[in-house]
What does this fold into?
Amino acid sequence: MAVRSQRARVRRKSAPRKKGKAGQAARGRPAGRAADPARVRAILKGLDQAYADVTCALSHKNAWELLVATILSAQCTDVRVNMVTPELFRKYPSVNHFAALQPAELEPDIRSTGFFRNKSKSVVGAAKKLVQEFQGRVPDTMEELLTLPGVARKTANVVLGTWFRKAAGVVVDTHVHRISRRLELTRETDPPKIERDLMRVVPQEKWIDFSHQIIWHGRKVCAARNPKCVECNLETLCHAADKTWTTVDIHKSAKA
It folds into this structure.
């Protein structure tokens, strides 16, 4: 009995060492075989075939309108935002008109997008900063965009990629979050870490299109609940645990 207890203690002490670097690598990098360059190329080819000419679904005529629409799209559908923005931009035609407002004045106009108080502060705050520090123009660098109220990497990436066609990163919204995990392009759950993984495995020249394509794929086929796997042209490349139909092995770790 004494020998067994001693061995048990040794095993318990040894266990943490086995997790060490290997465990950190598994958590901090895309799934090994699943993120193989040839497999990633096949995924990108499938997306190109299904969504050749897609772009951002938010209606806009300039960089400022896109910035506002993207801020409003947080926790809200693009469809709803597109219902709100035409009248919003008719009422306030320029960034200077928004900068002249107090947040409370904007709240009734965007109430239906949800979280309207915080969004009002962000939109008006961004407008004021643009007028005061950027001559009323939306900057075209990640560093400058991130200084604007209400703007984090997702919003900045949308504006940079869609309007300026600058691939500074990968947009990680709810669709990209879900599908990149189902496709085992990342094991992460935190958006900045998911973005870093995707920037490693997706070629930079595809970052902009990849984001748009995955978002459209999420809307049309790869829904959060009951994905239409039988209609999916990526089905043979997907081993997600929550597939509704499959011709390939399931990987339990491939979860949305």
The chain has two domains: 35-54+170-237, 63-162. The CA atoms of residues 104 and 246 lie 51 Å apart. The two ends are 46 Å apart (CA to CA). Residues 35-54+170-237 form a domain with the Endonuclease Iii, domain 2 fold (CATH 1.10.1670.10).
